[in-house]
Design brief:
The protein is an all-alpha fold and 224 residues long. The chain is built from eight helices and no strands.
């Protein structure tokens, strides 16, 4: 979608600002005061200002209903390349090579929060989170860089997406082995960015991201 004008610039600026906060993980140092409240408000503001664009792109499926087939295709790619290849083959080999037990601290942290407050956390991790992240990574990062270089856009978007998911335990927690998990997140990002690049429709990666997270949370809840 091609955009121009002051509101477009405003959206880009606020999304970039949110992205910096989101990737850096600094919100964990805000405590429970006004900074935390401002961070939450900013997250919701980013999603709210993008809702009209997302709804507009959702209506585009009426003109090209076959595009919806990219959702099951994307899910299949995630299962084969991310879950089976990266998470069940490559990453276990890497963990074994460095001599540590396989663990994804981010997944454990999210699941712990879901057990404490299931209703809120399921909404945040399975609905709100995927929408926000696709806005930040596909619309913002990929959208800004792809006009210069698509390969660079794919790589930078994947790197930031992966970093955001391991930074808490990997840097702030001091467990550098968590960076092994970045490969799986980067693979997921490559798939989402590839589909977004093909369609220029943010609804495709949003739908896949939501389904993947819902399936992941459902499996975790069934296991425990």
């Amino acid at each position: 979608m091609k955009e121009h004008g002051a509101f477009y610039i405003f959206k880009r600026i606020i999304c970039v600002f949110m992205l910096v906060l989101y990737v850096s993980g600094v919100q964990q140092f805000f405590g429970g005061g006004i900074l935390s409240l401002a961070y939450i408000v900013l997250m919701f503001l980013v999603v709210i200002i993008m809702i009209p664009d997302i709804l507009k792109e959702g209506k585009a499926f009426k003109q090209s209903p076959k595009t919806l087939l990219l959702i099951p295709l994307g899910l299949l790619m995630v299962i084969l390349l991310d879950n089976l290849l990266m998470e069940n083959i490559i990453q276990p080999i890497l963990f074994k090579a460095v001599g540590v037990a396989e663990e994804n601290a981010n997944t454990e942290r999210v699941f712990g929060m879901i057990r404490k407050n299931p209703a809120v956390m399921v909404f945040l991790s399975c609905i709100f989170g995927p929408v926000l992240e696709e806005i930040l990574y596909r619309y913002t990062v990929f959208g800004l860089i792809e006009t210069k270089s698509k390969p660079v856009a794919h790589f930078v978007t994947a790197l930031l997406f992966g970093l955001q998911h391991v930074i808490d335990a990997g840097i702030y927690g001091g467990d550098i082995t968590q960076f092994i998990n970045i490969s799986g997140y980067m693979m997921f990002s490559f798939i989402m960015s590839g589909l977004y690049s093909k369609t220029k429709n943010l609804c495709i990666p949003i739908a896949i991201h939501i389904i993947v997270n819902l399936l992941g949370v459902s499996i975790m809840l069934l296991q425990y």
